[in-house]
Amino acid sequence: MSSGGTTGALLYAVSAAVLGMLQFGFNTGVINAPRKFIENFVRDNYEAKPSLIFSVIVSIFAVGGMIGCPLASWMLDTQGRKKALLYNAAFGIIGAAFMGFSKLATSVEMLIIGRFLIGINCGFATTASPTYVSEIAPVRMRGAFGTVNQLAVGFGMTCGQILGIDVILGSDEGWPLLLGLAVVPAAIQLIMLPFAPESPRYLLLCAHDEEKARVALTKIRGSSDVENEINDMHLEDQAAREEQKFSVKDLFTTPALRIPLVIGIVMHLSQQLGGINAVLYYSSTIFVKAGLSEEDARLAVIGVGSILFVMALVSIPLMDRLGRRTLQLCGLGGMTAFSILMTIAFFTYENNTTMSIFAVIFTFLYVAFFGVGPSSIPWMILSELFGQGARSAAVSVGALVNWFANFVVGLTFIPMSEALGNYVFIPYTILLIIFFVFTYLKLPETKNRTIEEVTALFKK
């Protein structure tokens, strides 16, 4: 048996890859604090309504994401994992440059194009990075390494939020640099990746180059005793070849696949439509609404990213101990409760500092419960509900649905909050209750079950 532990080469490769996920977190969190300054910029250069244009700047990111996902699936197979990641890093630099120079060029369009391009980059990363990481991680550590992706997202988000406070880059002068800093993870990734190994599984099963696969695996595992693992890959490949290949269309037409697909789609929808992105994109707006000053609101925003980061750490050991179903139900239940309490707090904070503070605490707890399950489980669950033949199609449908829902929330939150005022979280609360009931009735537990056992459940 190969040594199967963590080696320097493995950690290096994982770090290089998850910079793409850090980029995704950064660009999700960074847009929040500078809202006021970006709207000033829009007002100076544009006739249109600033809050509407800001909604577009926020949500065009997710339109890019919807393009990046399928693009990544295609490039991972045609160019190899490593090259695909490299091209994407170079592409990220272009997107960052558009955002960073938009004010110099007094061009709102450049800002929108930059957010769109960095969206493509981040959508690409959310597909490419987890694929590469799961392929190079030792089998028994795959779950732990999988959560590194979530950690990187939380870390990137916190960085974006901290840099956005007034004293650093939260100002009329600072925001272009703040958004342009997306160039940093992309540039580091571009420098690191050439020295990272290609995925041995790609080399063996897609490029059919066993020699190179053995060299790469030896490097990653830090030992030349890789025969067993190479054989396991061959066996898996054989099993995969005997399995029917399913297209996206098949997923919707075959009953045994349709049920798990619907479950997976609903899990992804519950991640986005539970309103979490309203909090992530607009938390400073929400905190100001709850009676905090602008400065305090931007500081409170940092709490949101930090909580996600901490909860990602906490959920690592719980995933395999308590199981996915329990954590998902726990998370959705908590989110439902605290979205109701948030709404109550919004109504009672007038001239009432205590309730203002409670509004913030409830928001934090809502985010914490999101971090327990719904933040990472939808991304894991699809690969656990499907066999090899249907997995990649299912995962890409899930990612697409996720980004689409992300887009809808990003675009509708400001108009919705203008229309509903303090009731703005009620639609999310209703959806959360529906998602909770659905999960309770339909989601099977996947922990400690082989893929065969799980897929057998749906064939009945």
Automatic annotation (TrEMBL):
Superkingdom, taxonomy of origin: Eukaryota
Transmembrane intervals: 9-31, 51-73, 85-106, 112-133, 145-169, 175-195, 297-317, 329-349, 355-381, 393-414, 420-441
PROSITE patterns named among the record's database cross-references: MFS (PS50850), SUGAR_TRANSPORT_1 (PS00216), SUGAR_TRANSPORT_2 (PS00217)
GO terms, molecular function: fructose transmembrane transporter activity
Compartment annotation: Cell membrane
Membrane-topology annotation of the record: Multi-pass membrane protein
One GO BP annotation of this record: fructose import across plasma membrane
InterPro entries to which the protein is assigned, alphabetical: GLUT, MFS_dom, MFS_sugar_transport-like, MFS_trans_sf, Sugar/inositol_transpt, Sugar_transporter_CS
Keywords associated with the record: Cell membrane, Glycoprotein, Membrane, Transmembrane, Transmembrane helix, Transport
Occurrences of domain Major facilitator superfamily (MFS) profile (ranges): 13-447
One term under GO cellular component: plasma membrane
Family matches, as PANTHER family: GLUCOSE TRANSPORTER TYPE 1 (PTHR23503:SF128), SOLUTE CARRIER FAMILY 2 (PTHR23503)
Family: Belongs to the major facilitator superfamily. Sugar transporter (TC 2.A.1.1) family.
Protein name per UniProt: Major facilitator superfamily (MFS) profile domain-containing protein
The organism of origin for this protein: Bombyx mori (Silk moth)
